[in-house]
């Protein structure tokens, strides 16, 4: 919640150009990806899938000694997810003001996100030969870092300080009247016939 609140206000701060805010958000996401997931990697090295099935293996909970570090890491993952989601939706909104395009962008993003979650869930649930925890961890980290690399050209080339209506209408079947209305562009057709 706090990550979304802080980044939400920062991304909508009006005294800084939109293009600058987008680049700063990307750099912040990049830094957080390697800081938080780097901490996760340090923690992940402490145990394997084989360790947790051994008799006498002690699972972490709030009564375990040294639980503070993993708890802070877990909270950091939650903050990271909130920051990621806030930035991704802000990037989409900064690319276009067209609600139809935004719906397509958001639907595509959520579809890919849900497919990825389903794949990881299935891989973790394999009974005969589940992949090592480190492989699952690394695949998530690589996908996040790779997504940032793929997003950078889009952020640099497509996010502008303002989006002209004509730009929003490209590749759609909408007209300028559909988007901003008759009264703003010219008199309505009913008035022209009178």
Structure description:
There is one protein chain. The model has no long low-confidence stretch (mean pLDDT 84). Helix 1 (2-11) packs parallel to helix 4. The longest helix is centred in the middle third of the chain and has 28 residues, at 68-95. The protein is built from 10 helices and no strands. It has helices spanning 2-11, 18-44, 49-52, 68-95, 99-125, 133-158, 165-169, 176-180, 182-185, 189-193. Helix content is 73%, strand content 0%. It has 194 residues and is mostly helical.
Q: Quickly count the helices.
A: 10
Let me know the number of strands: 0
Summarize the helix and strand pattern as letters: HHHHHHHHHH
Task: Determine the mean pLDDT.
Answer: 84
Morphology call: elongated
Helix content: over 70%
Radius of gyration computed on alpha carbons: 23 Å
Structural class: mainly alpha
Largest sheet: none
Strand content: under 5%
**N/C terminus separation:** 55 Å
Low-confidence stretches are: none
List key phrases describing it.
single chain; 194 residues; 73% helix; elongated
Give the topology, please.
Elements: H1 2-11, H2 18-44, H3 49-52, H4 68-95, H5 99-125, H6 133-158, H7 165-169, H8 176-180, H9 182-185, H10 189-193
In short:
The chain has helices at residues 2-11, 18-44, 49-52, 68-95, 99-125, 133-158, 165-169, 176-180, 182-185, 189-193.
């Amino acid at each position: 919640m706090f990550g979304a609140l802080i980044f939400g206000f920062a991304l909508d701060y009006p005294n800084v150009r939109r293009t600058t805010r987008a680049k700063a958000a990307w750099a912040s996401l990049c830094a957080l990806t390697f800081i938080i997931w780097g901490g996760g990697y340090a923690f992940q090295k402490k145990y394997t899938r084989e360790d947790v099935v051994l008799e006498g293996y002690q699972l972490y909970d709030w009564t375990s000694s040294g639980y503070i570090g993993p708890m802070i890491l877990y909270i950091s993952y939650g903050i990271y997810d909130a920051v990621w989601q806030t930035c991704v939706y802000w990037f989409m909104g900064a690319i276009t003001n067209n609600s139809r395009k935004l719906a397509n962008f958001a639907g595509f993003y959520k579809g890919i996100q849900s497919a990825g979650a389903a794949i990881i869930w299935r891989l973790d649930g394999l009974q005969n030969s589940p992949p090592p925890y480190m492989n699952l961890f690394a695949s998530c980290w690589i996908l996040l870092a790779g997504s940032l690399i793929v997003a950078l050209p889009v952020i640099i080339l497509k996010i502008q300080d303002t989006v002209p209506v004509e730009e929003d209408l490209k590749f759609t079947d909408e007209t300028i009247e559909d988007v901003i209305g008759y009264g703003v562009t010219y008199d309505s057709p009913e008035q022209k016939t009178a």
